[in-house]
Amino acid sequence: MEFEVLHIDKSMGARRGLIRTEHGTAETPAFMTVGTQGTVKALSPRELKEAGAEIVLGNTYHLYLRPGPDIVAEAGGLAAFMSWDGLTLTDSGGFQIFSMTDLTKITQDGVTFRSHLDGSEHFLTPEKVVEIQAKIGADIIMVLDECTAYPLSYDKARKSAELTIGWAERSRKAFNDLGLGPGQAIFGIIQGSTYEALRKRCTDALIEIEFDGYAIGGLSVGEPKSAMFEMVSVSTELLPADRPRYLMGVGFPEDIVECVARGVDMFDCVMPTRNARNGSLFTSQGKVVVKNAMYAGDFSPIDPECDCYTCKNFSRAYLRHLFNAGELLAPNLATLHNVTYYQRLMREIRQAISEDRFSEWRHAFHSKFEGASQQD
Amino acid sequence: MEFEVLHIDKSMGARRGLIRTEHGTAETPAFMTVGTQGTVKALSPRELKEAGAEIVLGNTYHLYLRPGPDIVAEAGGLAAFMSWDGLTLTDSGGFQIFSMTDLTKITQDGVTFRSHLDGSEHFLTPEKVVEIQAKIGADIIMVLDECTAYPLSYDKARKSAELTIGWAERSRKAFNDLGLGPGQAIFGIIQGSTYEALRKRCTDALIEIEFDGYAIGGLSVGEPKSAMFEMVSVSTELLPADRPRYLMGVGFPEDIVECVARGVDMFDCVMPTRNARNGSLFTSQGKVVVKNAMYAGDFSPIDPECDCYTCKNFSRAYLRHLFNAGELLAPNLATLHNVTYYQRLMREIRQAISEDRFSEWRHAFHSKFEGASQQD
């Protein structure tokens, strides 16, 4: 993996860049679309491409349990398995292990948990997680970290951060020992809850270990937004300029804009895809909850400013009918629209950075967004 | 609607033709893809087009209840509502009323039934059904008929056929009174169970009333195949050569081939779409039930002879994974494949007729198909 910073906005830390891997190129700031089980829910890879997506995020926990890393490896890796002509990243599975499973034990060694599918017991170590991801074969793999809840006492957060640092060191070593790369890159994950000192300690330690990129984890878990922004800045100010920075699980369009301003290059979140399946659509005029009765006879598109296939061809009335009738085309058309919305947002951000007008663009975006939210 | 017979195979009654409406042209023999609620389940209109489909069949019963004919009319008719750039046909709703609802009363006047959605009571007459379909605005509308079960006594079948004939007469009159056409065409439906005399009586009566096309209904409901083929021939031998003939609800690829041989021009069935959603795929090598464990590590396409997006890009192993994981992409890719299979079948049939080799083609098809079924 190569990362190149193409331009830094004159008035702030917002950066425009490029990630190159053997599977292609992705522009940053990038929003990675979540494809948990080796598919972006309700969307075919060509639709995903059409929406402007360049990176798909697969979930190691899910793919490890089903279909299993060997099947994905035999298929030629995640991108080949799902026929995705673009970049892939796999998370470490940590978040899912800590949030979805019956977690039976966590030690320095690793985690023991029961599968949410069949209750079977599994033991994963940082090394094993690297091996699994090596098989799955994404361009970017993530280290196993401990995902903590919010709020958390300083003492617990400190112990957890040290565990995460130790695991990161072992992950890096396992990655080196496997002789992976340059086909695959590995990112470390910064934890430390909402404690500035711990975030700094964790950031410094990971920089010392050295990774191809650095993720900021454990945010957007219920803490105040101000704390999230502060913790992001603590890390981005310390991180080396020549490595991509990835804020995990974020999020709302307005939060993405704020964190780009703080120097973040990569984002992921289930929001565009999950909301779409619930009929909640992002538009230039605010949120449209298309199941609402008010749209029954509304023959205008979801978003008149959007040029996606959904907006070019279908009305709110039709989408509402599809959702009400439980038709499979509903999540498909809605997801295509929301993913397009997010990718257009990132394109606009990149364009504004290139032209040194990100600061103005950001203010205009927030004014429009807040106006739209109030109408909602 | 215009119908033109382009060629009749030299050795048999198989015909190749063209249906022209203001929404475009469809070649016959045609297989109409079922789009019950104003969408072909799991497929976008552009995917449907790509699969080669030219006519979509909407269900009047479903569209009448939801979103209601007024919404569809306001959208500009069914094709505009669903953004389908092709022909549409609506059934009369009769089949659904008789099979899906709590049918409370049937008289000479019409039928009283309770909606399967909310239990609300509705009374529909042949005239009302024409009016509803006029609003829905499909290119071809169907008369209300009584759908009978198999087996049925001669006496009951005779009474039912007479009711159907009376309703057909009233439907034709209602159609004329509304001043519909040439934008919309109306087809009569031949009933008469498996009784040759009744089929003849019904066919003659409908020819006398005169319709733009003639459907053969009440078959493929459990009767022996030989009876179905015989009843089809009884009608096609009497029907005027210059009007399209539509065999309703059929069906299996091998039955379509046999009924084309007997002079049928149009078919519809939920089989390709419904089977796809269950993971049952039609291929040149027989049926592939892709959920089966035997496909877990099978990286070959569903059908190596198929050029659809699914077969060109995805493996059986991937499809199996999608079905097992309950992913929405599974029904989408499977439906695209099955609809493509049916449309390719119809193209091959039309080509064979054009070249006066339908008889040979038919035998080769059956040999291959039976071989494939035996492997299955």
Write the layout of secondary structure elements.
Two copies of one chain form a homodimer.
Chain A: E1 2-8, E2 15-21, E3 24-28, E4 30-34, H1 45-50, E5 55-58, H2 60-65, H3 69-74, H4 78-81, E6 87-90, H5 94-100, E7 102-106, E8 111-114, E9 121-124, H6 126-136, E10 140-142, H7 154-177, E11 185-190, H8 196-209, E12 213-216, H9 225-238, E13 245-247, H10 253-261, E14 266-269, H11 271-277, E15 280-281, E16 288-289, H12 309-313, H13 316-324, H14 329-354, H15 358-375
Parallel strand pairs in A: 4-5, 4-14, 5-6, 6-10, 10-11, 11-12, 12-13, 13-14
Antiparallel strand pairs in A: 1-2, 2-3, 7-8, 8-9, 15-16
User: Which consecutive residue ranges of chain A, at least 5 long each, have pLDDT under 50?
Assistant: none
CATH superfamily descriptor of the largest domain in chain A:
Queuine tRNA-ribosyltransferase-like
Radius of gyration of chain A: 20 Å
Total helical elements of chain A? 15
Mean pLDDT of chain A: 96
Assembly state = homodimer
The total domain count of chain A is 2
Share of residues in strands of chain A: 15-25%
Level-2 CATH architecture of the largest domain in chain A: Alpha-Beta Barrel
Q: Which chain pair has the greatest contact?
A: A-B, 38 and 38 residues
Write the CATH fold name of the largest domain in chain A. Answer: TIM Barrel
**Largest sheet composition of chain A:** 8 strands, parallel, barrel
The top level CATH class name of the largest domain in chain A: Alpha Beta
The percentage helix of chain A is 40-55%
Query: How many distinct beta strands of chain A?
Result: 16
Q: Characterize the overall form of chain A.
A: globular
